Amino acid sequence: MRIVREVLTPAELRKFREALDTAQWQDGRQTAGHVAVRAKNNQQLADDDPVAIGLGQLVVDRLGANDAFMAAALPLKILPPRFNRYSEGRGYADHIDSAVFSVPGTPHRVRSDLSATLFLSEPGEYDGGELVIATEAGPCKVKLPAGDMILYPGNTLHHVTTVGRGARLAAFFWIQSLVREGERRAMLWELDDSIRAISTTSPDDPTITRLVGLYHNLLRHWSDT
Ligand code: NI
User: Fold this and answer.
1) Same-domain pairing of 207 and 97
2) What digits encode the pLDDT tens for the residues 10-20?
3) 184 CA distance to ligand 1 centroid (A)?
4) Angle 40-42-47 (CA atoms, 0-180°, nearest 5)?
5) Where does the pLDDT of residue 138 fall: very low under 50, low under 70, confident under 90, or very high at 90 and above?
6) Ligand 1 ion local residues (Cβ < 5 A)
7) By residue range, what is the domain housing residue 188?
């Protein structure tokens, strides 16, 4: 699990909020499977809503230039981001996300190796609305500043607690990684981060070139394209 800070700038966030405040929100249960429909109580924008398509593309563009995201996710395919809204009394009970998603309007499919939630409301704007992810160490509650994003394994049980006041807006989507296994992604991230650290403290150390080579050879070994 990893937090990616400041995916969007304050100016971009304002643009998102203006567009989403007047958007055509629909019942989120329309896109839930027959089991999830009992757990899900929120609103979403339709996949073909021009607002969702425009803002979603901007999110994908920002992520492509975000080193922290690229290093953590090693993305192969990103499902076009969707947008949801939890107003007072709404939440989403425990569930595991679908394994494979169709990319609307295309024959392509994305395996959900990683789930992402990009927070678009400030924590003080609503009570509740925490994303709670089950981990080996117990439940992990996530409620981030607007513009920040949580990346978590697609195979985890999670829920969104009921909003008691205000409204929680977010973008959410799934990523198929070049490296399917989370443990391998975590080791590559650790190596990448270590190389960054050495490059800062000892930029002329010839060992850096060997470690970068090792990183790429591991990625070559483990990646599917
Ligand atoms: Ni979910």
Assistant:
1) no
2) 999 999 999 99
3) 23
4) 100
5) very high
6) 97
7) 182-222
